[in-house]
Amino acid sequence: MDITIKGDKEFDDIPSLKSKALRINLNENIYGSFAEIGAGQETCRHFFRAGGASGTIAKAMSAYDKNFSDAIYGTEDDGRYVTEARLRKMLSHEMNLMEERITRDKNPDKIFFTYANTVATIDFAKQFKGHGWVGIRYQVEAGQDYNEIILHVRFKETDARLQQETLGTLGTNLIYGAFYKYNKPKSLLRYLYDHLDKDQLEIDTINFSGPVFQNIDNRLMSLQLVKNGMTDAVVFGPDGTNILPARIFYKKNILALRGSFRPVTKVNMAMYEKSLGMFVKENKVDKDKTVVVFEITLSNLRAEGKIDEQDFMDRADLLCSLGQTVMISNFQEYYKVVEYFSNFTKARMGLAMGVNNMVDIFDEKYYRHLSGGILEAFGKLFFKDLKVYLYPMLDPETGELLNSENLKVHPRMKELYKFFKYNGKVIDIEDYDTDIMNVFSREILQMIDNGDRGWEKMLPEGTADLIKDYRLFGYTRKPLRAISIKKRK
Question: Which sign, positive or negative, has the C-alpha torsion 381, 383, 389, 391?
């Protein structure tokens, strides 16, 4: 299914934008339309300037006026224009027109595409930096079902003209990659930043679909976004689909639990259930507008030197099977998690954690890179409307129950800890089960690896069956994953 031009050869270096556009234009079979809203005809401009566009570009348009846009694509229930739903309507409408106006009997070899974006660039006051949805619907063989690549971007530049140029570069990279790098989706992701810098643009959501991407798990593509430094965090829901972080966190109360979840244990779920019960009883928390997210840091995924994608999928599958929303982040310190959530909400937030995690938070070595040290970090962590829900643990040496009253922080940190503790920022989870406090993920994993018995009772109901049925975490693993999370359900 590779699309080639006679006499063409692979580029040794990064091809220029003109070269990319020209390669598309000179392919006599590629034929499509451009629909760009909000930032001008920035992508299409590259293809017009490259030359040879008359055989490639069926139409280029910008329904910039809202009324005119509504007349073409219809109105949105929420009245917004820069949304994924709007982008999908644009792609569908333009492709339907293509199919209606270009008959297959006269053009049997044509492979159609529609590129679209709906974007809001930086506002005049420079308070809102801008964002947008970008996508392409296309074929790689004539008559084949359509493939789609849809992504969400956030601009980092503070000038509208620069943002427009950045969008044009991204769009050209996307179209080129869609046709010539679709068989290497991880490489395609990296090529989206050709001639761009990560200080210009953030890609925080991407989804692939269609026949050429049928074996692609979009959660792995999300992992690549964080791994490549294209974004700081990605989110996917219980059904395994990628979710725009702003969509799920906007103006919500957020309760976050950080862990390795390798695998998720009864302690993890008890911490979740008890902290959530306490969180929703807070005066400033609306139960109906509360989001719980299980967070795994990239540093945790790299615990053994490199990221094991299969191991990541095992963790994700178990959490999804339990109906949880999962976030993969590049935040090693807790204060960065809180700062990230603060981009989307001013409502009360909560962190649920164990005693050992709380002790780590008060370790100065994690804040040496900050000019203000641990005081700066704690100013960012607790300045917001945040509470920590602390799950107790048994001291492995003495068997003593450790909670907020007797946990041991460094002597220099005692007064700082007391300040936050006695100002109501740290709250003990008092409804706990001492019978499961000696359950640790690392020990369960070792038992699975050794082929030992008894680990099943340490996991939430049904979780052990999933591990056995689908050979997760090295449990006599099959060569290939036999089933997806959706099929499991």
Answer: positive
